Amino acid sequence: MSATLLSLTLLATSAVVRADYFSTNPLVNKDVPYDKIPYQVMTDRDDPRGFQTGYNQCNSTTENQQSMCQTMFVNHIDDFCLWAPAVAGQTIAESEGEEVAWCSKKGHGTRLIPNGAITSVQFVQTKSYIQIAGTFNQAMLGIGGTDGGELDSGGQDGEGNPMGGLVYTNSFPAANGNNATFIQARHWSFFIGNNYFCGKVCDQTGSNPQGLCNNIYDRLGCDYNAPANVQAGTFEVCKGDDMMPVGTYVGADGATSTYHQPPSESDPIDYAHLPYTPTPAPTSSCTPYASAAIFTDIANVAAVGSASAAPTGSPSGSGAPSGSKSNPTGSVKPGSPTTGSPSSGASKPAGSGSSGALAFGASVGAVMAGFAVVVAAL
Ligand SMILES: *[C@@H]1O[C@H](CO)[C@@H](O)[C@H](O)[C@H]1NC(C)=O
Ligand SMILES: *[C@@H]1O[C@H](CO)[C@@H](O)[C@H](O)[C@H]1NC(C)=O
C-alpha cells in the first residue's frame, strides 16, 4: 500500500463512518447449533447498511464457484475457509459486509479456494482458540487491490462482516459430552489482504473468547491480532499457548496494560511508537504437511478469471516462496511493524471497517459509498 493512499483513505473515512445504528440482536449473541442453522441468520431488517447478501444453509446444490454461502469452517489445516468477495475484483474493504466462504475442502456448500492459491499455512490450536495464518495469492480468489481488512463477528452495527457470517469448527472439544460435529464460534476475526491471511476462532467455553478474538483492533492487522510464525512454503499444525488478549501487553514495569488504537481514523497509527511489539505465543509439537497432500479436493479448481483449469504440477511448489525450514527465525511477515514500515508493502492486512469504518485501503469509490450510506442514515 502506498502511504499516500493510506492517509488519503484514513482521512476520507474519519468523520463519516461511525453510524449510530447498532443491532438489538447482534450476531455475536446468536447461539446457532449446527443442526439449527437458519436460511439467513441476520434478522434485523432496519439496518441502514442493508441486509445479509448470502445465506447460511449451504449444501451440495450451493457448492459451486458462484455460491453465496456465508457459513464457513476452520477445522484443520486441510479443511478451512477464508472470506473473500462474491464479486471478482472487489477489495476486502469494498465487500466486507458481503464476503462469502471459500473453502479448501468440498462438502461445505461453498466456493472452493483455487489450486495453488495457498502458499503457506500455520494452524495453531490452543486451549481457547484456533488460529490459522498464512500466505496466499489473493488475486486467485478474486480479491482485488493489495490492502486488506478485518472480517469478524462484530462489525460496526453488530451484524458481523460479512453480515450474517457464521463460523464453525470440529476442532473444539465436544461440548456437553456429545460429539457434536461442528461447534459454532461466536467470537472470531480474520484479517485478509496483502496476500496474507490470519484468523482466530475462539471457543465460547474457553478463556475470554471476547478478549482473545477481540474485534476492536481492526487497524492493527495480523501482527497484533493473531501473531504467528508462518514459514515460507511451509504447512504446519502446532499446539500453542493462548496469547494475551488482543491489545494487552506486559510493560517494562511488569504490569499488564491495555493499548487502544487511535479512535479516529484520521489519526495515523505510528507503528514505530506503539507501546508494545507483539510476539507469537509459544508453540510446540509442530507437524509439517505437504500441500499436495492436504489440498487434494481443490487440485482442479481454477483461479478466478482464468479460462482453464489451474496449472497441474506440484501444488507445494507452485507459487510458493521457496522453503525456509533451515531458517527458523525467517518467518513470513513482510510489512510487519517489527520488521519495517507498515507501508512497505507485503503481507500485513491492517485496518478495516469492522468496528466502524471502511478499511483503509478502501478505494475512493468505497469511501464514497460509505459516505452515501451514512448520509442516508442521518
Ligand atoms: C440447500 O441450500 C439452499 C440455500 O440455502 C436452500 O435453499 C435449499 O433448501 C437447500 N436444500 C436442501 C435440500 O436442504
Ligand atoms: C464421543 O467420541 C468418543 C471418541 O470417538 C467416544 O469414545 C465417545 O463414546 C463419544 N461420546 C458420545 C456421547 O457419543
From TrEMBL:
Transmembrane intervals: 357-377
Region described as Disordered: 307-352
Protein's name in the database: Macrofage activating glycoprotein
Keyword annotations: Membrane, Signal, Transmembrane, Transmembrane helix
Signal peptide positions on this chain: 1-19
Superkingdom to which the source organism belongs: Eukaryota
